[in-house]
Write a structure and sequence with these properties.
Helix content of chain B: over 70%
Helix content of chain A: over 70%
Radius of gyration of chain B: 19 Å
Order of helices and strands of chain B: HHHEEHHHHHHH
Number of domains of chain B: 1
Low-confidence stretches of chain A: 1-15, 380-407
Strand order of the largest sheet of chain B: 1-2
Distance between the termini of chain A: 15 Å
Radius of gyration of chain A: 22 Å
Mean pLDDT of chain A: 79
Order of helices and strands of chain A: HHHHHHHHHEEEEHHHHHHHHH
Low-confidence stretches of chain B: none
Mean pLDDT of chain B: 86
Largest interface: A-B, 52 and 51 residues
Oligomer: heterodimer
Number of strands of chain B: 2
């Protein structure tokens, strides 16, 4: 917490660079958003690339949810895949049609999406009494039980999940009569037809941006301060008037809701809701729990932009290698058991996790923060003699200095 | 009744294996306060070498090599990675072991490839008939080996100078260092022992009797089931690890028979949840107190 104490002391002299940095950040953000909006046009008709980008957004939304819980609120959780499953199944049940032994309410997909997020949050709330009692690794392993529970429920409640053999098809998303599926004729942007995958991309982009902004808002506000207070010292937080039980439960609910949203996105991305056959492979398995944790660690615990970066590394690379395998025949000589796309991406992100912990425990967020600080420092020394001592201290701060909302 | 007795013996045999794995978690946790998420990959390393070498060295030779290799792999992880990350706190180091785990597991699984071999040749799939009850030979041998190893371990932990040093360090790292206990050596041996125990455990796990699944991702997942065993008993209690292992083994065997096979793994975790809700630090774990 040292930096939060130091920050206010940086004199007004630090203000102009900060404002400049702010303006720069806004400009950078706008350019990035423009690129993302135009991505279908830039990519053209290569839908496979667009699928990779969509997948990264799924990882980003889920990762943001987990980084809030693990990094900001200090509660280790491996239960993320469970909430993904809850979200995916809820969406299919609420909006899907009742057919051939499947339960489906047939409500509008928007209701399904919102409902899935809410239901995931409620499941998180149901686990909160357990989560509130446990700390650190005990909580981590306890949350692991949800993954196993999800595996079993997914297999036994076939009328909801569709079962492990065939699964069920989630309904196409639909908003105000606009269906997120292929259509004839399709609207075009700069000559590129906006078909199902392009539409999904825009849907995912909107969801991810909203998720991102909400998370940033939470981190910067009273909620985020309460999370960090509880993380750093529960006794002290209580003394400051923070209701520890409620704040911890709240963090779990928010994180599960994010995971639920990521689950809906997964269902739409795969065009399939199918529970896993075992606990170690599949879309809602232990592997996914570890992948999400890797996203959070690589990005820097508690950093929202970091989670997005982590998603690019972990989720992006995997799909990128898979794409390379399909399109260009990479790893073609690797038979079963060879160096495949999935194995290679696991190597990369496993190594990234090790390197991050060894050399930069703050993750990508800390590196980014340091680069920014260096730049502002040099402009400072030109315009003003008052170099904020804070940045030096922040660089070397041994603890997780992830609570700098500007980073 | 006969079924029940059968389940009891088989469950205890499984429990002994889980106890071996849980002891590994506990030893490392006591020495360093780090949770070793890479335990499953140590299991795989040992099992993989047995699989590779058993045709050339014979099963016994391969088993010895596998155990030694798993122990050395543990030592290597500690010496090369963890010992060089002094600045990082325990939780980050636990996360680091996740990274290690991902890499080793992927490598072993891809090397094993499509085979998914069973490695318990001398005893696997040769059930023992005792009157009306049938006992899996693997589980019976596991029970004996587990009992011997656990007793030896607990005695060593209690009476040998290594055990005293280990307990002293767990009690108070700085005071122990001031008394001339080499912290690095204690830590290194903890990883060595944990690795060796994992190497023994895999000889029983990757069998038809135990899991029906050969060496592969399934083995790794079974090692994860030892997590609840360690947590259930209390992460800093060696006796707790043994009790936890047995509880897990029996829960799995009984629920697989009386409820459903699919449910058995979830049952283990549900039992752990119930225990944790009542006792947040496990059955025998030290309660965490916060002083204001």
């Amino acid at each position: 917490m040292s930096d939060t104490l130091v920050k206010p002391t940086s004199p007004p002299a630090g203000a102009p660079p900060a404002r400049r940095r702010n303006r720069l950040a806004i400009a950078g953000g706008a350019v990035l958003l423009l690129v993302l909006v135009l991505l279908p046009v830039l990519i053209g008709n290569e839908v496979a690339y667009l699928k990779v980008a969509q997948y990264i957004l799924i990882g980003a939304v889920g990762g943001i949810g987990l980084t809030l819980l693990v990094g900001q609120a200090g509660q280790l959780s491996l239960a993320h895949p469970f909430f993904l499953l809850v979200g995916a199944v809820s969406y299919a049940v609420i909006s899907g049609e009742a057919e051939a032994g499947l339960v489906g309410l047939g409500l509008p997909p928007v209701v399904g999406l919102v409902g899935a997020v809410l239901i995931s949050g409620l499941f998180g709330l149901a686990f909160a009494p357990v989560a509130g009692r446990l700390r650190g690794i005990y909580l981590g392993v306890a949350s692991l039980s949800l993954v196993f529970l999800g595996l079993w429920l997914g297999q036994s409640l076939e009328s909801l999940t569709g079962g492990t053999s065939s699964g069920r098809t989630p309904p196409n998303f639909e908003l105000l009569g606009f269906v997120f599926a292929n259509s004839q004729p399709a609207p075009t942007i700069l000559g590129i037809a906006i078909q199902k995958q392009q539409r999904l991309w825009y849907l995912f982009l909107v969801l991810a941006v909203v998720a991102y902004l909400l998370a940033r808002g939470a981190v910067r506000s009273r909620i985020g301060r309460a999370w960090r207070a509880v993380r750093d010292n529960e006794a002290a937080a209580t003394a400051m008037g923070v209701n520890v039980t409620r704040v911890k439960a709240g963090a779990f609910v928010v994180s599960s809701a994010y995971a639920g949203l990521a689950g809906v996105m997964t269902a739409l991305w795969l065009d399939l809701v199918k529970p896993d056959e075992n606990e170690f492979t599949g879309n809602y398995s232990l592997t996914v729990a570890i992948a999400f944790l890797a996203i959070v660690i690589i990005g820097g615990l508690g950093s929202v932009p970091g989670a997005v970066f982590g998603a690019i590394v972990v989720y992006g690379l995997q799909q990128f290698f898979l794409l390379g395998a399909n399109e260009f025949g990479w790893f073609a000589d690797a038979q079963f058991g060879g160096l495949t796309a999935v194995v290679l991406s696991a190597f990369v992100y496993g190594a990234a996790v090790v390197l991050v912990v060894l050399f930069e425990p703050g993750g990508a967020a800390a590196i980014g923060r340091r680069l920014l600080a260096r730049r502002t420092n040099t402009t400072d020394s030109r315009t003003d003699t008052a170099v904020p001592a804070a940045s030096g201290g922040r660089e070397r701060s041994p603890e997780r200095n992830d609570d700098d909302p500007r980073a | 009744m006969n079924t029940f007795l059968q389940l009891l013996v088989n469950g205890l045999g499984k429990g002994a294996v889980y106890a071996l794995l849980a002891l590994g978690f506990v030893v490392i946790y006591k020495a360093t306060e780090v949770i070793n998420f890479a335990h499953g990959s140590l299991v795989l390393v040992g099992g993989f070498l047995v699989y590779e070498l058993k045709d050339t060295l014979g099963w016994v030779g391969a088993a010895v090599v596998g155990i030694v290799a798993a122990a050395l792999a543990g030592l290597l992880i500690e010496r090369v990675l963890l010992a060089n990350a002094r600045a990082a706190d325990h939780n980050s180091l636990a996360l680091l072991t996740i990274g290690v785990d991902v890499i080793i597991t992927e490598e072993v699984v891809r090397r094993v490839g499509a085979d998914i071999p069973f490695i318990g040749d001398p005893y696997d799939a040769q059930p023992i008939q005792l009157g009306a009850i049938t006992i899996f030979r693997t589980q019976a041998i596991a029970l004996v080996v587990g009992a011997v190893l656990i007793t030896a371990f607990l005695l060593a932990f209690r009476y040998s100078s290594w055990g005293v040093a280990m307990r002293a360090q767990a009690e108070n790292r700085e005071a122990a260092a001031l008394m001339g206990i080499r912290s690095s050596r204690v830590t290194a041996t903890a990883w060595l022992v944990a690795g060796a125990l994992a190497g023994v455990a895999v000889l029983f796990i990757a069998t038809q009797d135990f899991s029906g699944a050969g060496l592969g991702r399934g083995t790794h997942a079974i090692a994860l089931v030892a997590f609840p065993a360690a947590i259930l008993g209390g992460l800093d209690s060696t006796a707790g690890a043994v009790v936890g292992g047995i509880v897990v083994g029996l829960t799995e065997a009984l629920s697989a028979q009386y409820i459903s096979f699919e449910f058995s793994k979830s049952a283990v975790f549900l039992v752990m949840l119930v225990v944790l809700v009542v006792r947040p630090s496990g059955l025998f774990g030290t309660k965490e107190l916060s002083r204001v």
